[in-house]
């Protein structure tokens, strides 16, 4: 089974967390924390800065590491490195996603997160 290595940013603003809804592909309409694939030679932090600039037109500061999720989807294995992030410049623009929401801790279960991201939500809820 093919392994895909990605990064995800849990963007925080006070007690709110930014989630995005996929607008394309096999998992269209599923909710996730934004990010994407690592390119050769990139650190996870560098990939996250690049991906969030490409997807949301924002500059971020990568903060604390949350966890690495290992998840088997039907067609591939996902390794996802997750970090808390803070917006340094810009307002998120949906360049690749169809929707986005700022969610409180209590609202995190109000959207249909993709399975790997559900693991991140559980970790966040344990920390707060």
Characterise this structure.
The protein is of the alpha+beta class and 128 residues long. The chain has one domain: Nucleoside Triphosphate Pyrophosphohydrolase (Alpha-Beta Complex). Helices cover 20% and strands 47% of the residues. It has 2 helices and 7 strands, in the order E-E-E-E-H-E-E-E-H. It has helices spanning 44-56, 115-127, and strands at residues 2-13, 16-22, 31-32, 35-37, 59-72, 76-89, 97-104. Strands 1, 2, 3, 4, 5, 6 and 7 form a 7-stranded mixed beta sheet that branches. Strand 2 and strand 3 form a beta hairpin. The longest helix has 13 residues, at 44-56. It starts with a strand and ends with a helix. The mean pLDDT is 97.
Q: Topology, pairings included?
A:
Elements: E1 2-13, E2 16-22, E3 31-32, E4 35-37, H1 44-56, E5 59-72, E6 76-89, E7 97-104, H2 115-127
Parallel strand pairs: 1-6
Antiparallel strand pairs: 1-2, 1-4, 2-3, 2-7, 5-6
What does the average pLDDT come to?
97
Work out the count of structural domains.
1
N→C terminal distance: 35 Å
What is the gyration radius calculated from CA atoms? 13 Å
Percent in strands: over 45%
**At CATH's second level, what is the architecture?**
Alpha-Beta Complex
What is the H-and-E element order? EEEEHEEEH
Number of strands: 7
- What share of residues is helical? 10-25%
């Amino acid at each position: 089974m093919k392994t895909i290595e990605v990064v995800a940013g849990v963007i925080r603003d006070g007690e709110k967390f930014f989630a995005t809804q996929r607008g394309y592909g096999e998992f269209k309409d599923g909710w996730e924390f934004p990010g994407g694939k690592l390119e050769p030679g990139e650190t996870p932090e560098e990939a996250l800065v690049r991906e969030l600039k490409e997807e949301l037109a924002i500059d971020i500061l990568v903060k604390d590491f949350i966890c690495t999720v290992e998840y088997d989807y039907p067609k591939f294995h996902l390794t996802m490195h997750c970090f808390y992030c803070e917006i340094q410049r810009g307002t998120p623009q949906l360049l690749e996603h169809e929707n986005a929401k700022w969610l409180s801790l209590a609202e995190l279960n109000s959207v249909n997160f993709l399975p790997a991201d559900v693991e991140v939500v559980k970790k966040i809820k344990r920390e707060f």
